[in-house]
């Protein structure tokens, strides 16, 4: 019966792989055809929209365009790392190097796992049954098939040590490579406003002085040689609400005049357009715009009295800004607080007006909501595990027993549906994490995305790995970690049993996810639905931003799966290697042709990759200690204990050796770059732009209503850009 159940699971897994291979082929074929469409056909991506082909070529029928081709793969692989760094930025290069690092790690792991560990596992019990593959279950390919106390387990022990050494070496190499590229990118880039600017908060209130006067007096006194200018932050919440209303009304009026929506000659100006006197539609909208503009001008004139004790202070040199950032400015450490300023387009304005108490309460609320979300997601995990276990499903729903006995139905339900349903539940998690992070008081969008990336990674590891691995109630899962001495034993017993689920998860979530990513299926369907119902989107077409905070946690989670199952169930390794290879090609294409970065973090996502890799290695070591204990090989278990200690020491060394370079630039680089800028002729123009770079868009004057025409773009939008 055990063999039959194993065969059923293996068949279900193969069914899942077959379905996803079919979907992958379909998506790749459709995308290949789309990539061969004429250039003035709108295809996703900033570089695909612009092309100079003639209208005749557009309308002419060409059979070749309907045939799939792999030419886009070649074009995606052509750019070098230097091309990516110069054109797409350091964040894009870091993202690509994460995939390169993963490919190198799991290429080595696949060779060792498939050609050494997997045969050892398979022949662990009876050599004479080597050719009885149809009678074998997936456990025959895992370490569970090796006899207790067998000397063959020393092969696994050696593989763990070798694998750890290889991963640490590759991680060290990537640290060294990216650190040098970060410095090279800094030297080759043009002067940027955020390099010369610091954010000052906690400005003390001086009687009879405005915040602006206090800031200028302080920095002219103590930074006289490098101080350039400052911009005080104002309370602009109400003004921004008026700006949003004016923006929407302007777009509506533009669409009415252009005829893109049905135009009524008259309407009633009362409630819901059903009451009041009849007025001309265009004239009514123009008068509302004029009133909004007057309200905005009045609000702007009152902003001088609504200053916030914070300001963006700009300096003439990067070194001067670095000194102001890293040295305590005042005697009272709670005043004149400084931090590096984000890029102007990266500034998140809402929380500048928040008090310290409000930020503290927001952080507490976010933490509670995050923990509650993790607990609530136990429900879909239980549902998924029920689908994966056919016997448990028959217990829950006995009336479905006759249907579940059908071979095809059982294979699809146990092999494909569990990971698919779970993936659908996970789709709503990234927006929630972004929302929670935006409530924590960060002053830049990049900080919000980095925080959301960490939250999403923690959520994925807990709910997708530990919650699936550890059976029982949520209270039992917590109790496991409250008794540290039992952690290796519990994980060693539970992790190998979920190998089939995670292989299916890699295929369903990984392969199909990448295929739908290249086709951008969700935006395509959403756009189709909006057009089907005749609902025009008020927003103009925008190039989608790079989704680093969503994709990096997924890549790191698959890396964790491969690391932990490296010696437990090596059968998962080829599936992961295919995922990373596909991801490398697809994401290079997406970064080159689809996404556009709105701001640059300077590669600050890399420390998250480092910490996740070290955690994955330590988790593998903990499981190995438990496995060797359960397999009655105490000496191997004891000799594995130094491995996590050595890994943590390696992590500390890398943090001190490399990670400091991802937080700030050294004085040597700053001074050399300042000297190079001093020889440039256009620095005066840059300083002129720097003075107004951090001015709140809401403070800038704008005009919508008077003299409006279809050719005039909203001036307010140009200020925001």
TrEMBL record:
Boundaries of each CSC1/OSCA1-like 7TM region domain copy?
364-628
All copies of domain CSC1/OSCA1-like cytosolic, residue ranges: 196-350
Asked whether the keyword tRNA-binding is assigned, the reply is no
Where, per UniProt, does this protein localize? Membrane
Q: How does it sit in the membrane?
A: Multi-pass membrane protein
- Kindly give the InterPro entries that the UniProt entry links to this protein: Csc1-like (IPR045122), CSC1/OSCA1-like_7TM (IPR003864), CSC1/OSCA1-like_cyt (IPR027815), CSC1/OSCA1-like_N (IPR032880)
Keywords assigned by UniProt?
A: Calcium, Ion channel, Ion transport, Membrane, Transmembrane, Transmembrane helix, Transport
Whether Phosphoprotein counts among this entry's keywords is no
Domain CSC1/OSCA1-like N-terminal transmembrane positions: 12-174
Q: What single Pfam family name could you report for this chain, choosing any that match?
A: RSN1_7TM
The residues that cross the membrane are 6-28, 94-118, 153-172, 364-388, 408-436, 456-478, 554-587, 608-629, 635-654
Q: State where it is primarily located.
A: membrane
| Family from the record | Belongs to the CSC1 (TC 1.A.17) family.
What this protein is called in its record is CSC1-like protein HYP1
Give the species this sequence originates from.
Brassica cretica
